[in-house]
Specification:
By secondary structure, the chain is α+β, with helices and mostly antiparallel strands. 31% of the residues lie in helices and 24% in strands.
Length: 173
């Protein structure tokens, strides 16, 4: 397993050798930290959203306004998680309009001999492991950040579970 800063990295749950900027549909599940019921409760078989649930619901719909070439499929906010389908068209997915950086921005242009090599190498490693602009990870990271930011701004205690789950939808079934 590759190390970063002499620490072991947790292996990625993503499909290896798959570009998550590629055209396709992705079924996403994002959980709250410790499975806490932050988004509301199911009452009489209907989801009753809490204030944080409303934020999560509204900001999911806003993804299309902050990311290029993405469509939203069905989604639902549940008491302790969100399920949603992201559909990327694969065309000009140059990035999120906010949140993610392009690889070129991460690589240092320092020209000092020893310092430049160290800094450039470290930045290249960060670029290698960072979410790519327009990728599912970039989109979900920006969404999670926005929900957290707005919840905290309004005085609500809220945290997401680290990471998220995805399934590449390969056919109608």
């Amino acid at each position: 397993m590759d190390k970063f800063q002499n620490k072991y990295r947790i292996p990625s749950a993503r499909l290896q050798n798959w570009d998550y900027r590629s055209a396709g549909a992705y079924f996403i599940t994002i959980n709250t930290k410790n499975g806490e019921y932050c988004f509301g409760d199911v009452v009489d078989a209907k989801m009753q959203l809490s204030n944080i649930g409303v934020i999560a619901d509204i900001l999911w719909c806003e993804i299309i306004n902050h990311t290029k070439n993405v469509e939203l499929g069905e989604f639902v906010v549940m008491p302790n998680h969100v399920h949603g389908i992201l559909i990327l068209d694969g065309n000009d997915n140059g990035g999120c309009n906010d949140g993610c950086r392009d690889d070129a921005c991460i690589v240092s242009t320092t020209t000092d001999t020893d310092m430049g090599k160290t800094k450039n190498s470290k930045n290249q490693q960060m670029a290698k492991i960072s979410p790519k602009p327009g990728s599912v990870s970039c989109i979900i990271g920006s969404y999670k950040s926005a929900v957290s930011k707005h919840a905290h701004r309004l005085g609500f205690e809220f945290e997401w579970q680290e990471r998220f789950y995805d399934h590449i939808i390969r056919n109608d079934k």
